[in-house]
């Protein structure tokens, strides 16, 4: 099983490291990298060889645009979860998400499509992270909080439920 990663920058390289054990071949598409096998716009040309694709673009708007393009073209959009992350059995991880090492997605928490949970971040119980969000390193999403679509939660930020 092969994986095509859109974006060969730091985030793309991280995803490649996390995906190596699950995929036999991992390749990049990128408009500005010598490590890429083609530009982003060529994604349709690789569908047969790489039926699985992951968008490793940090910009939430662009990431969701490319996820929609891949979905329309018929790619499978796996989520990439580090074996060093804790994801509760009752948590729900949507398609095309990445959960990095030491991140926590607690009891009954939900990640919508295309969410990123970076190293050391905590998504507490019953929280809902709507599609296209990025919870950056060491950020904390409080119990029951709903994070609006395409929000970037900054490094170390604490988001609590309104009282």
Sum this structure up briefly.
The chain is an alpha/beta fold and 163 residues long.
What does this protein structure show overall?
The chain is of the alpha/beta class and 163 residues long. It has 2 domains: 2-72, 3-Layer(aba) Sandwich (Rossmann fold), CATH 3.40.50; 80-159, UDP N-Acetylglucosamine Acyltransferase, domain 1. It is built from 2 helices and 17 strands. The chain has helices at residues 10-19, 60-72, and strands at residues 2-6, 25-29, 52-55, 80-81, 86-87, 92-93, 98-99, 104-105, 110-111, 116-117, 122-123, 128-129, 134-135, 140-141, 146-147, 152-153, 158-159. Strands 4-7-10-13-16 form a 5-stranded parallel sheet, covered by helices on one side. Strands 5-8-11-14-17 form a 5-stranded parallel sheet, with no helix packed on it. The chain has a 4-stranded parallel sheet with strand order 6-9-12-15, with no helix packed on it. Strand 1 (2-6), helix 1 (10-19) and strand 2 (25-29) form a beta-alpha-beta unit. The longest helix is centred in the middle third of the chain and has 13 residues, at 60-72. It is elongated and about 50 Å long. The chain starts with a strand and ends with a strand.
Task: Please state the CA-atom Rg, rounded to the nearest Å.
Answer: 15 Å
Q: What is the helix/strand order?
A: EHEEHEEEEEEEEEEEEEE
Largest sheet: 5 strands, parallel
What general form does the structure show?
elongated
Please give the structural blueprint.
Layout: E1 2-6, H1 10-19, E2 25-29, E3 52-55, H2 60-72, E4 80-81, E5 86-87, E6 92-93, E7 98-99, E8 104-105, E9 110-111, E10 116-117, E11 122-123, E12 128-129, E13 134-135, E14 140-141, E15 146-147, E16 152-153, E17 158-159
Parallel strand pairs: 1-2, 1-3, 4-7, 5-8, 6-9, 7-10, 8-11, 9-12, 10-13, 11-14, 12-15, 13-16, 14-17
């Amino acid at each position: 099983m092969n994986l095509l990663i859109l974006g060969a920058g730091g985030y793309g390289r991280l995803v490649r490291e996390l995906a190596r054990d699950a995929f036999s071949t991992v390749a990049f598409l990128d408009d500005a990298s010598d490590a890429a096998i083609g530009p982003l716009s060529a994604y349709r040309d690789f569908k047969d060889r790489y039926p699985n694709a992951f968008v490793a673009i940090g910009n939430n708007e662009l990431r969701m645009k490319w996820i929609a393009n891949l979905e329309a073209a018929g790619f499978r959009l796996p989520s990439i979860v580090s074996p060093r992350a804790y994801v509760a059995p009752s948590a729900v991880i949507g398609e095309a998400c990445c959960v990095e090492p030491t991140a926590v997605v607690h009891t009954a928490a939900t990640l919508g499509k295309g969410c990123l949970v970076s190293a050391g971040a905590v998504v507490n119980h019953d929280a809902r992270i709507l599609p296209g969000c990025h919870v950056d390193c060491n950020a904390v999403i409080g119990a029951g909080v709903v994070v609006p679509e395409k929000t970037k939660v900054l490094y170390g930020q604490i988001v609590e439920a309104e009282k």
